[in-house]
Amino acid sequence: xxxxxxxxxxxxxxxxxxxxKSRYYPQMKxxxxxxxLPFPFHREMLKLLKQSNPLQQKYYYLEDETHYxxxxxxxxxxxxxxxGKAQLFIKLxxxxxxxxxxxxxxxxxxxxxxxxxxxxxxGCKLVLNIDxxxxxxxxxxxxxxxxxxxxxxxxxxxxxxxxxxxxxxYRRRMKLAVKRCGDINIKKISDDSISVHxxxxxxxxxxxxxxxxxxxxxxxxxxxxxxxxxxxxxxQGFVLLKKNGDELVFMLCGMNYKDEGCNADLYYYMxxxxxxxxxxxxxxxxxxxxxxxxxxxxxGAVLExxxxxxxxxxxxxxxxxxxxxxMLEYTYAFPDFRVxx
Length: 341
Prior knowledge:
Oligomer: single chain
Structural class: alpha+beta
Mean pLDDT: 91
């Protein structure tokens, strides 16, 4: 690599100050009228994650004559084969946004250049949610969980118009969920007036793909709006949503699993209300996130591939990781649902 100027800090404010002084800052903002980096790399969001969910986060800003990269790293003890076919718990540096979003934990104009630098960091590194495959010598790579993304049509001017555009079998399933959730009220909140964290923890414990576990403070103070689904005065589920330009980001959710019988209907009902929220707020796209792909495909979402890259500074371990990369991969095959008429 050419001579690289690097700034490394465990203080997000310090690294963002460096970025704002850099010559590449206007490009990194993506939109000239914006006052900060694109979501989720907002200053307040990064500070909140550092304060409420300390995972030894580090923030890197790199630049040379033609390249730049900003990325987040955090320490986590996780199953190296979380998305694969085996199980091996190891402490590693995860390069990702530290609250399980489907976007990558980086901003760069050259992914391969950024990954070459990451190879120089000591220890075991796992880079998640790269949005395109690039060739980087000496790194194990493969597919990880895909992102589910729904493009709303011009005709989707209301939730009813969206449902009318579905083929009958999918519309019928959503109507059934609406009927079975008829005694549920929905409350929109942007504060901590309802504690949603216990429902998040129940969902986290049931998840097949555990990464970091978030603390209560994050949900109490996170930017975005929560839809809380209430039955007989008790919260049964919630979704945390963030409008990002013309896209609605489904950040996180949780459910009360005490009543196992209605969970499938409630989840359908929650997703349907996310669609309604997006239409109401004039969004063109919904980032439905990762996991539960089959259900989200039945709402008309499509899968966008995401990739991981892994590297260890120990050459022998790195060779083993490269040889066994198929064990690290997430494999999937879903029917080609024809959801819309």
